[in-house]
Amino acid sequence: MTETPEKTAFANKRLVQRLVLLTVGMFGFGFLLIPFYDVLCAITGLNGKTGGQVTVVEPVKVDESRTVTVEFVASLNIGAPWEFTPKVARMQVHPGQFYQTHFWARNLADQPMTGQAIPSVTPGLAASHFQKIECFCFNRQLFQANEGKEMPVTFRIDPNLPADVRTVTLSYTFFRIDNAGS
């Protein structure tokens, strides 16, 4: 059985249609995956997302019988021309009490740049219990050429943090945001 040119042309046309449909479907899936992931993280607290909102400050009883180690980690987006580091690597805190620490950042470029820090808390279970009252991560940070500055973080650990969580890590990744703040 030999195929006629008409059958071959029809088969090729059908294959191209299927490939185009597959490509559109893959693009749509990739496009919808980001909002779906954000909703999933917000509901479950996965990935340590703490949200970008200021916490409502309600009085809570400080648990002085318990200490939690809070570790601070700073990292840079690949190729970002910054210096970025925590002023302290770790603190011992009592749940319910307010604490403040600072991160140091410096623009290493010879031109003004804007950056944004994205926080993450691990273990993921602790993310909903880590309350940032004031944070440089809430806003974009404009740096002049070679400018450095200390940036504060005021926080507390909710006393309802499960007792088996003894160490919480607050990690920031600093990103360059082009054409921002101008």
Secondary-structure map:
Elements (H helix, E strand, L loop, with lengths): L4 H40 L23 E9 L5 E5 L3 E4 L5 E9 L5 E10 L7 E6 L5 E3 L4 E10 L9 E11 L5
Parallel strand pairs: 1-9
Antiparallel strand pairs: 1-3, 2-4, 4-8, 5-7, 5-9, 6-8
Could you list some keywords that capture this structure?
four-stranded antiparallel β-sheet, 182 residues, 1 helix, 22% helix, alpha+beta
What can you tell me about this protein's structure?
The chain has one helix and nine strands; from the N terminus they run αβββββββββ. With 182 residues, it is an alpha+beta fold. The strands form two sheets. The protein has a five-stranded mixed sheet, with no helix packed on it.
Q: Kindly name the structural category.
A: alpha+beta
Tell the overall outline. elongated
How much strand? 35-45%
What is the arithmetic mean of pLDDT?
Answer: 84
Pattern of helices and strands: HEEEEEEEEE
Low-confidence stretches: none
Portion of residues within helices: 10-25%
Helical element count? Answer: 1
Brief rundown of the structure:
By secondary structure, the protein is of the alpha+beta class. It is 22% helix and 37% strand.
